[in-house]
Design goal:
It is a single chain. This protein is mainly α and 407 residues long. The chain has one domain (5-404). Helix content is 71%, strand content 4%. It contains 13 helices and four strands. It has helices spanning 5-18, 45-70, 78-123, 137-162, 168-178, 185-196, 199-232, 234-238, 243-262, 264-291, 303-339, 346-354, 375-394, and strands spanning 26-29, 34-37, 362-365, 368-372. The strands form two sheets. The protein has a two-stranded antiparallel ribbon with strand order 1-2. Strands 3-4 form a two-stranded antiparallel sheet. A hairpin with a 2-residue loop joins strand 3 and strand 4 (368-372). Helix 3 (78-123) runs antiparallel to helix 9. It starts with a helix and ends in a 13-residue tail after the last helix. The relative contact order is 0.11.
């Protein structure tokens, strides 16, 4: 699992694209090649306006539309309802993760930077080598993800300006106007202003999507490279009769374990939120791509299959990496048990190894871990997306779409 220079350049590209307007709690410093945390202060006022102002207002508008539909105040067409659900998933995703970064970002930044230092210590220059043998697909993929996500933000903004069906504020206005409500000029101006500034929450959503994809991928590759090097050098160090040498070798794994523990307050809830909302949005995008061709306007429809493919690609990249962390640790610990017989002080080394736990990514909330990312988790997660997509598709018949006034 070599971390190439092109992969590090993807973080530079991320900073150049997304950190040009205002400071964020967690940002990438191009000069020092580290994650930098900015605590809540005056420097973050533009960010707070963006997240807890524009993004929260957008979330409130979406929630108001869904409540109106739930209690019969509004009768939304199916297409509009699905689009509102897509917006809701993305906005909730951004709000939760931005809040997590604001309150636990100091641990996240410290853990990522410490992991980078540890990888340089254990692996030497391996983590910064140039990829010359073949195409660096990992680096190219990370850079393409950032380019695609940043361009998608502006494309989405343009579409929300062109089509009122894609703009939640326009739909909210239409719902109340259909009930005969009259709006004062100030309220109309506020709605027009919110519609015109949709670029701010859309841009913030794109940024958090990028950081949630790129930083965990880089962290996973760094950790896997450390585990691989520790496993390869195990025979030499574990066979030593000098406990000082053995302790120095095992200290690398203990450091890796400590780094993951430091960032656990962010990793566990973010893993749960990301996997749940990704499943939610993937099912919606798949359902629209399969069943609503010809019903959704052709100018808007390509967005949904592209988003479905993008979600599937990110799942294919990230989930196996998270699973490999736990599986690689199990292989490493099994190898240590095999090498235990050649140790000069078996009792001491056995107690030492017994104190270690497998490095793994957990999904949880409020301090409670609900599941561990292992091989069965990957199968269950992908299987759930496929199962819900099939169930939703079987319950929909496009031939009778005109009866339900869907378009």
């Amino acid at each position: 699992m070599v971390v190439t220079s092109l992969m590090w350049k993807s973080l530079d590209r991320f900073s150049q694209y997304f950190d040009i307007f205002w400071k964020n709690p967690v940002a990438w410093d191009i000069k020092t090649k580290t994650l930098v945390f900015t605590p809540i202060s005056r420097n973050l006022i533009p960010w707070m306006i963006s997240v807890y102002g524009f993004l929260t207002v957008l979330n409130g508008s979406l929630l108001l539309i869904l409540i109106s539909q739930l209690y019969g105040f509004a009768q939304l067409k199916l297409i509009k309802l699905i689009i509102i659900l897509c917006w809701s998933g993305q906005v909730v995703f951004a709000l939760v993760l931005e809040s997590l970064l604001a309150f636990t970002g100091i641990n996240v930044s410290y853990a990522f930077n410490s992991l980078s230092v540890l990888a340089r210590k254990i692996c030497g220059r391996t983590i910064e080598q140039e990829h010359t043998t073949s195409l660096d697909m990992k680096g190219i993929t990370l850079n393409l993800i950032i380019i695609f996500t940043s361009s998608q933000a502006f494309n989405t903004y343009v579409f929300t300006l062109i089509s009122s069906n894609l703009n939640p504020y326009s739909q909210l206005y239409a719902i109340f106007a259909s009930k005969g409500w009259s709006f004062p000029l100030l309220a109309k101006f506020v709605l027009f202003f919110l519609r015109l500034t949709m670029i701010i929450p859309v841009f913030q959503i794109s940024r958090i999507v990028c950081i949630i994809i790129c930083c965990p991928m880089m962290s996973a590759y760094l950790a896997l490279e450390c585990l691989s090097t520790i496993r390869k050098t195990g025979v030499y160090y574990m066979s030593s009769r000098n406990n000082v040498i053995v302790d120095k070798y095992l200290r690398n794994y203990a450091s890796l374990q400590l780094i993951f523990k430091i960032s656990d307050d962010f990793i566990a809830p973010s893993a749960a939120v990301v996997m749940f909302i990704t499943m939610w949005l993937s099912v919606l995008f798949n359902f629209i791509s399969i069943n609503l061709y010809g019903i959704i306007p052709p100018s808007v429809f390509p967005y949904f299959p592209i988003s479905a493919l993008f979600s599937a690609g990110c799942i294919r990249l990230l989930v196996p990496l998270l699973v490999d962390l736990y599986e690689e640790c199990r292989v490493l610990q099994a190898r240590w048990r095999c090498l235990l017989g050649g140790s000069g002080d078996k009792k001491y080394l056995k107690r030492k190894l017994h104190s270690f736990r497998s490095v793994a990514v957990y999904g949880g909330i409020l301090g409670y871990n609900l599941y561990k990312c292992k091989r069965s988790t990957k199968m269950n997660f992908v299987g759930a997306i496929i199962s819900y997509t099939i169930s939703a598709s079987l319950s929909f018949n496009a031939e009778y779409a005109h009866k339900f006034n869907l378009n």
